[in-house]
Design a protein that fits this description.
This protein is of the alpha+beta class. Helix content is 37%, strand content 24%. The chain is rod-shaped, with a radius of gyration of 24 Å.
Amino acid sequence: MNKKAFTLIETLTVIVILSITISISYITYTHLVESSKLKILTGTAVNLRDEIINYLIKNRPLSSDFDIALIPQKPIYKDIPISNKTPWGNNYNKLYASVIKQNSQLYINIFFDIPNKGCYVLYDGSHQAVYLSSNCVGPI
């Protein structure tokens, strides 16, 4: 009898190699997905900052610092378009902007309070949402 078959050791070796490959692929995939969601959050913040600047140019004199509640949105800011959905698919707990005037410069920081994710902020001029903490405490 001359049967050709894989031995138990060969089969286990293939299973181990496949398991390691799948584990590494899954970790890489979840990291890429999370990274892309943070980039979406950053893009949302940049768009919001631009909308806030447009709103301020049209409607409000820039005499002092103030905060803008975007979620829950106050009727005065109804002209600022905002989606309630986070990149993770749930609703924001809070979303607000802090407008700071310094030496005739205007800085707008966008704060996101995201359920089960914590607090993120996009500082004016930056291109990345920065994780602050798991507990969001803001002015609004």
